[in-house]
Amino acid sequence: MKSRKPNAAEGDLYGEDQPVFAVAPMIDWTDRHCRFFHRQLTAKALLYTEMVVADAILHGPQEKLLDHDAAEHPVALQLGGSDPEKLGAAVTVAREWGYDEFNLNVGCPSDRVQSGTFGACLMREPERVGDCLQAMRDAANETPVTVKCRLGVDDQDIEESLDRLADEAIRAGVSVIWVHARKAWLEGLSPKENRDIPPLDYDRVGRLKRRLPNVFVGLNGGLRSVAVANETIADLELDGMMFGRAAYQTPDLLSEVDHCIYGEPERAIDYPALIAVMEDYAARHIALGGRLNHITRHMVGLFNGLPGARRWRQVLSTKSTGSEAKPAIIREAFSHIRLDANQEAA
């Protein structure tokens, strides 16, 4: 499947001879607590931050925006913006926090990014995208710089729009392109509708890969099964898969990644150990002034389909919200789950 020749700067993230599995950047979802939780389920997946706007890094609370737990690695910082100078400066700041990759958002269709003329709006300005990526690469030293885009926006022709975007990325020295395989309709559809209504076109992503065999092309959009996604990218000769809502809403599937994608020994989730780790993590967060629900809101989808999952969700949703909520609530919720004989809940 691999005919690409990764840049030396891509290091271990994209230089291996197996597909790359990533959890997509999702605003308000993939914060540092979500990423710590996901990392307990997969050691190998590449985890993305929420999109962080370059201006916020330059003028906002940098520690709050950029700090993360060492356990999260490999972790990529996704940036939003359309000013090359600001994006380069933001990468210079963020570089000190040790991220494994910097990614430019050219796909988000929200009103917030439209008002700032970045995100999916940049599909209309491929030359500017190239300039932004060049500035980020100049500031990143040896850290990989990548781009995540759509097929196009509104009435653009997806053959021309995606090829032009990819060509500008390559001009800037970027050779990793993640593609959400839908158009974004900036006029007439909400951000939520943009995740479902524009039809998926995986074949278009496959055509991009055939055109650019030496470029990493990864697929995003509508993927819900690790095994099926692996077959899909193999059929299209793509290099990686990126899961969004499925990984967040049914996080158990992340436990399949290390075995199915990276060839690690198959291993069942040790749920009691997972609960203990998350209790300890929550205790540390609360000791620093945080709240329990900052963490538990990302755990609600765990145990989906198992006996007791509904009660697990109820306990976490109702008892974790108060300022006095304690980490033991996680174990209380877990006590309602009925596992098989060798993994009984405590």
Question: Quick recap of the structure?
Answer:
With about 350 residues, this protein is α/β, with parallel strands linked by helices.
Name its key features.
346 residues, alpha/beta, TIM Barrel, Four Helix Bundle (Hemerythrin (Met), subunit A), globular, disordered C terminus
- State the secondary-structure class: alpha/beta
CATH class of the largest domain: Alpha Beta
Largest sheet: 8 strands, parallel, barrel
Give the low-confidence spans. Answer: 1-10, 341-346
Share of residues in strands: 5-15%
Q: How many domains?
A: 2
Mean model confidence by pLDDT:
92
The shape, in one word, is globular
Q: What's the CATH H-level superfamily name of the largest domain?
A: Aldolase class I
CATH architecture of the largest domain: Alpha-Beta Barrel
- Roughly how many Å is the radius of gyration? 20 Å
Count the strands?
A: 8
Order of helices and strands: HEHEHHEHEHHEHEHEHEHHHHHH
Helix content: 25-40%
Lateral strand order in the biggest sheet: 1-2-3-4-5-6-7-8
Q: Distance between the terminal alpha carbons, to the nearest Å?
A: 45 Å
Number of helical regions: 16
Per the CATH scheme, the topology name of the largest domain is TIM Barrel
Structure write-up:
This protein has 346 residues and is an alpha/beta fold. It has two domains: 8-260, TIM Barrel (Alpha-Beta Barrel); 271-343, Four Helix Bundle (Hemerythrin (Met), subunit A) (Up-down Bundle). The chain has helices spanning 11-14, 32-39, 54-59, 62-66, 84-95, 111-115, 126-140, 158-171, 202-211, 226-236, 245-249, 257-260, 271-287, 293-296, 309-319, 328-334; strands at 20-23, 46-53, 75-80, 101-106, 145-149, 176-180, 216-220, 240-243. It is globular. It starts with 10 loop residues before the first helix and ends in a 12-residue tail after the last helix. 45% of the residues are buried. One of its GO terms (molecular function) is tRNA binding. Keywords: Flavoprotein, FMN, NADP, Nucleotide-binding, Oxidoreductase, RNA-binding, tRNA processing, tRNA-binding.
